[in-house]
Amino acid sequence: MAVVVSVLMLLLCGVGILFLFRTWLESMRRDLQKPAYTVSAPRCSACHEDSDESQEDAKGHLLTCDSSGDEDEGHVCDSRESYDQEEDPEREKEEHLKELIRQRVKWEGRLMVVLPVVPLLSSPWTTCTGGMPTWAYIIYLPFLLKAKVTEAVMLQKLQSPEYIWSLEHILGFWLWGPLEHLDIFTDGAMPWQAAACDPEATNHFVAAFEGAGPSQLFQPLAQWLGLSGLLALTFVFATAVQQFAFSAMTHPDRAAALAADVAGLHGLATYFDERAGSGPGGTSGKAILVVLFKVLAENLPQLFLQTAFLSAAFTRFDGWGRLKIMISLGLGLISATLKLSQFAMAGISIMWQRPVDRGFALFVLLVVPLPGFLMVAWVVARIIMAHKCPSHQWNLATGCV
Hints:
The protein is mainly alpha-helical. The protein is built from 14 helices and five strands.
């Protein structure tokens, strides 16, 4: 099973590197073909494309043009058009800057595929008792620092100083963003530690399904892939879904918001989400996408499997090994709770402010956040019972196994 996990991780890293290299080549090709930034000359919209144009004064308050070249019979363009053309250069420069930042944010999102390389390189030294070696976390730190510096520079170009020094931004920049970034890194390390604990961990995990009702249908798959294989499979799936989501999205600001969230750039994600506007029913577009592609595809499956790993190999961990898996679980719980809370608050806001949409908002709250919160509560209960049950195994239907 360790070989299967190694092959899956190598394939993930190989595909990610090829994808990044292809994207880099494509962006370089576009940059080489793109002409230097220029401001287009003002035109008169009332005239034909091949008509002569003349500007009556330096400020452009009055434009005359005539398809026959006779200025006396020319068309007079509205002075408001000339006013708009005076502002066009600044507006074009601003949009040009925002487009460059959108592309950089997407690049930062794609760079997250490289993070599993660090656990891959440290896998020969990863043990069941101690987990991933400490020096691997030190190697990871430059990735986090690079992302934070990049976000700080881009936010200074986009946001006002008042926002940058606001409590919302400070919490997002220094707390929520780094926690999201670190959560992805620790999730990538879990399959290797589980592989070091196999086959004992998988045997305990499979045994927990005995007498657990319908969940016994999951037992053959768990036995075939093993606990490490399931952790690797869910991680690969979540990563692929998130990369595909923001790469295939057509709305530029919404794609940038999702890419920034994937990369742990909380401030940029908030900025582009506000520019993108509301999603269905008036909810935040990013909140909907994040719940789908981050919470449901990544956080909740990883939390379920990591708590199973904690229970199955509880007695084999030393102090550092148990601490590392508890950190990974804590990061996942914080991430899932925060995103589900944001989604729930958006739904409650709709119910309060827009009575006509209360039925839709209530339906969405019952379908998405409520089951998510129940899943989070169940994970917390499993963590507590793993420390209290003599066998460290606990199911909702059977209690301590």
